[in-house]
């Protein structure tokens, strides 16, 4: 087996980046097929894609090289894991994000969605506000459609609201839960791309188990919460219902004890109107 070099930016990286630019987000079989296609088109089929360790290392190294090129453009390919699942591998995605959008103002935070009209973006803000207002960070689909009447950019018909909601789901900005009971949630793409927007506009908890100092880990939108110590966790960061906090003997529960934390400053309220 010839060792593959992916640390020097070349055709492999250009083809892979083009694929990510057209998709915005890819994971599982999609990311593997994209990487394999880019690899075979540029360097030849020498990589053992059936060997998970070899494939993942090559993929990660390729993305690191691409990110060095994207840094000057204020962009990056980042990893995002679906918070609704306990297993990381099958629900891990890579998202192409624009980091520069989130340093200026809330309106610019949605530049990453150029294929949405102004009234659709306004509708999206209402959807996100109401999702983040709920303790479970989700709203019923019928309630989501009713929010179309709040849009001021134009008078939205119910059919337009439904079409926009379907578009947000199709583009993987929002998601419908798999339980079939009609709830709408933020998808990994939105959380990864709009993370700074979410941090600035709402009170977001941090996962106690994520890398970094305790309590200063990655943001968690739909956490499991210890009923005793109140620490928040990603589902994929814990191994059982026992609280990982060594000082606590409590049990973690799905969103237990979470209070509404929709907090916006006056300037942010004005910016969203």
List keywords for this structure.
273 residues; alpha+beta; Aspartate Aminotransferase, domain 1; Arc Repressor Mutant, subunit A; 3-stranded antiparallel β-sheet; 37% helix; disordered C terminus
Explain this structure to me?
With 273 residues, the protein is an alpha+beta fold. Among the domains are: 11-103, Aspartate Aminotransferase, domain 1; 107-193, Winged helix-like DNA-binding domain superfamily/Winged helix DNA-binding domain (Arc Repressor Mutant, subunit A, Orthogonal Bundle), CATH 1.10.10.10. Helix content is 37%, strand content 14%. The chain has helices at 11-23, 29-42, 52-70, 118-133, 141-146, 158-170, 188-193, 195-201, 266-272; strands spanning 25-27, 75-81, 92-98, 139-140, 174-176, 183-186, 205-206, 219-220, 224-226, 232-233, 252-254. The chain has a three-stranded antiparallel β-sheet. The protein has a three-stranded antiparallel β-sheet with strand order 4-6-5. Strand 9 and strand 10 form a beta hairpin. Helix 1 (11-23) crosses helix 3. The longest helix is centred in the N-terminal third of the chain and has 19 residues, at 52-70. The radius of gyration is 20 Å and the shape is globular. Mean pLDDT is 84; it is low at 256-273.
